[in-house]
Hints:
Helix content is 20%, strand content 41%. The protein contains six helices and 18 strands.
Amino acid sequence: xxxxxxxxxxxxxxxxxxxxxxxxxxxxxxxxxxxxxxxxxxxxxxxxxxxxxxxxxxxxxxxxxxxxxxxxxxxxxxxxxxxxxxxxxxxxxxxxxxxxxxxxxxxxxxxxxxxxxxxxxxxxxxxxxxxxxxxxxxxxxxxxxxxxxxxxxxxxxxxxxxxxxxxxxxxxxxxxxxxxxxxxxxxxxxxxxxxxxxxxxxxxxxxxxxxxxxxxxxxxxxxxxxxxxxxxxxxxxxxxxxxxxxxxxxxxxxxxxxxxxxxxxxxxxxxxxxxxxxxxxxxxxxxxxxxxxxxxxxxxxxxxxxxxxxxx
Length: 312
């Protein structure tokens, strides 16, 4: 059988930036083990398998696989898939006004639930997508001291923030172990000690490691991050939307604002030579987080065909 596929670079406006995504349309009927083998063959942080919606409200059914596991939710596949659908819609509705500005809303049915994505279209092209998480942030206290977490990521204890922002486990559909560090230099020199990771986090609720610095180098960014996910077969990720969502929940929880909206721009992938920009928003109502949104750009990069030994 021959399966068409496409790739996009997500959370970037430039080819070879952001996080590459593999996308196979019309194939959610395939066996799960075959999807996993295809994702392993693609060997990207995530590969998505797209199919028709299973509900009246949905736009498409989406399943997401890393090289090792299926995940219930992920950010760069959500934004990338919404861009892909927008490109399809624009092509189907051709000719499109070259001066039109519009918003296309798609509802992606993921294993975590329906995820709405608004895609802004300018001059007949999708330019920005923003999703709202299906789940509000869940917070759990880290069971590890900042000293032990520092050693796990190859840093000195003084590189971690013992005061102010604190290590915490947070999820908006995919859990992350948030480790705040003092400086960008600490972000740069971080290196995950796999022996300590296996002992401390491999079997825990939040085994993805997310290093956060409340400073950035780029003029457009506020925060610098890195993300390591060996438990999902991803040594390091260049742009992680689900982690950015967790970060929105984490930072919102630190804020004393009773009502209002907060926003941050996150840079990631610098150390991997795949610079990425992720836009995060959190709404607060009655002193609690009431919504988290994550957005960014994406571009189509390639199309091809994979030949696999499978007969439908």
